[in-house]
Amino acid sequence: MGYIKDLRKIVGHRPLIFVGSVVVVVDEQGRLLLQQRRFPEGAWGIPGGLMELGESTEDVVRRELFEETQLQVDELTLINVYSGPEYFIRAANGDEFYVVTIAYYAENAKGDLVVDQAESITFKYFHPHELPANIVKSHKEILDEFLLQHYTFLSTVN
User: Fold this and answer.
1) Contacts of 110 (CB under 8 A, 6+ apart)
2) N or C: fewer beta carbons within 10 Å in the chain?
3) Taking a C-beta distance cutoff of 8 angstroms, is the pair 142, 101 a contact?
4) Per the domain annotation, does 158 fall within a domain?
5) Domain span at residue 70?
6) d(CA 147, CA 88)
7) Distance between CA atoms of residues 51 and 22, nearest Å
8) How far apart are the first and last CA of the chain?
């Protein structure tokens, strides 16, 4: 996050626009990989992060997934782009920002899952009908849309 730290030194807490990417990783059993985050503490979310200078949104997903899990994905499929006033965030330190999030999904990540303890408590695969309750609000929206597109049978289960 060098770019963001450098930018904050210049503009302080003023509202900024950040671009980020997340990836819903689906394993061979149709389970979804979620990250139990350190911030907000204990909340579950989708692996991903914010763009650095010179990266594509696909680069962001691949870099963040590898940094956080040591997993790699090849093909990425777009779920949707999320933006607007409802994506305004005021951080605990006073920083304000709007996030534009590009969400992808990928199947069958390669590698052995190794959790980066700096950002994550743990990672776990969940069956779509057994997702944890404490999911970051914006990530819940992404998961709901993904599941509606790819797991329509769930509407009869829930």
Assistant:
1) 71, 72, 73, 74
2) C
3) yes
4) no
5) 2-152
6) 25
7) 11
8) 39
Q: Strands, E, within the chain: which ranges?
A: 16-26, 32-37, 44-45, 48-50, 77-82, 88-90, 96-107, 120-126
How many folded domains does the chain comprise?
Answer: 1
pLDDT the model gives residue 148: 94
Distances in Å between the alpha carbon of 71 and those of 57, 91, 107? 17, 29, 12
Assess whether pLDDT exceeds 50 at residue 34.
Answer: yes
String of DSSP letters for 19-49: EEEEEEEE-TTS-EEEEEETTTTT-EE-SEE
Report the pLDDT averaged over residues 38-48: 92
Does the pLDDT of residue 53 top 90, yes or no?
yes
CATH number of the domain within which 107 lies: 3.90.79.10
Rounded to a whole number of angstroms, the CA Rg of the chain reads 16
Binned at pLDDT 50, 70 and 90, residue 152 comes out as low
Give the β-pairing of 16-26 and 96-107. parallel
User: Percentage of the chain surpassing pLDDT 90?
Assistant: 86
Scan for tokens 């914006």, then name that residue: 138
> Per 3-state DSSP, what percentage of the chain is helix, strand, and coil (rounded to 5)?
30, 35, 35
Tokens of 80: 């949707």
